[in-house]
Design brief:
Layout lengths: L1 H26 L3 H20 L2 H16 L2 H24 L1 H12 L6 H11 L3 H16 L3 H25 L4 H29 L12 H33 L3 H38 L2 H37 L3 H33 L3 H26 L1 H28 L4
Helix pairs in contact: 1-2, 1-8, 1-11, 2-5, 2-6, 2-10, 2-11, 3-4, 3-7, 3-10, 3-11, 4-7, 5-6, 6-9, 7-8, 7-9, 8-9, 10-11, 10-14, 10-15, 11-12, 11-13, 12-13, 13-15, 14-15
Amino acid sequence: MWRLALPMILSNLTVPLVGMVDTAVVGRISVADIGAVAVGATVFSFLFWTFAFVRMGTTGFAAQAHGAGDSQGLAGAGVRAYAMAIVIGCGMLILSMPIRWLGLLVVGPSEAVAPLADTYIGIRIWSAPATLVNFVAAGWLLGVQRADLVLVLQVFINLLNVALDLLLGVVLGWGLVGVAWATVIAELSGSGISLALTARLAAKRGAPFRLAAVRDLQAFRRIASVNTDIFLRTLIAVCTITSFTAVGARMGELVLAANGILMLLQTFVAYGLDGFAHAAEALVGGAVGRRDRRAFRAAVAATSRWAVLVSGFYVAGYALFGNQIVGLISDLPEVRQMASIYLPWSIVLPVVSVWSFQLDGIFIGATRTRAMLVGMAISGATFFLAMAVLVPLYGNHGLWAAYLVFMVARAVTLGAAYPALERTLHN
């Protein structure tokens, strides 16, 4: 478990670090620039999370093929996923203008923030195909239990991104534009390495990547069924996050900036705890491929036990050092003061959200995606109902309370479906 979880934790934690550096680079310019990065990050979270099924579905299918010793199935899973990622990414480029318009319309930033956010989105959209290719590579490598290589790739991409942030954004003085181009260059560089690395590993297993796998319609139908469930489930999840940002944006630039910084703290939680969920995906997928209930239970127990323990460290860390972390991200006094008001929500969330992250990993590894879709639909409806009731009464505190309710609902719905999943395996 630790051989898989630790590299994924380290890999995942480098992602919000990039977001933090992005925000820190522009955080010394103006509140509007911080808001623009928050709006842009929300739009791309919507896009990339919506199509994150190319990573999640790949992990489930690759892990099961790996567990069953099916090299041809393993190679085919990679080729088909790469094909989907490239097609979807190119589609985003073609639709870049509508994406920019719709993103700004939904989030609704102020007049000062909107043009800056539009510039950021217009540049960063060019990273879309490469980003999705990197998603597939991470999913496939995790499925074959090579989390160490996922770490190497992610660290390379994110360190390059940070270095380019500082070079383009600070040294050359490009600011927001430099931050956007840094992401594009880093993702494109990483995608070339990802493709070459996974193709080489597949060839070493005696089943090289072949374009003929794209013509396997039966395999594509199965992938389409699983990925459609994940797509719809993720779409609902992203809609909740987008609505969270949009409602906060309508409360003013300071609330938008503060919520953006605090959501970065929640992103640290998600990416850190997702390391255990990713380990669960690989181990559960392998157990399902072998139809081994004992291995399934052992994977669930080991990953969940450590995830809960680590969530406690997040709570302690944010309780003790939350204001200092906020201060590292922005030195604007008004933003820091606003963020400190709502910091208690970031302190509570880790011990609540850990359960939904873990159960996601278990169900993805088992490719039992219909239960995930149903659970997310219920949770999303709960979030919007809670937001409609609590925001008029408590403002931004009500918004954060609705988000907490959403995370509780995700855990409860998947927890209710778990016993049926375990019963499908042999003893």
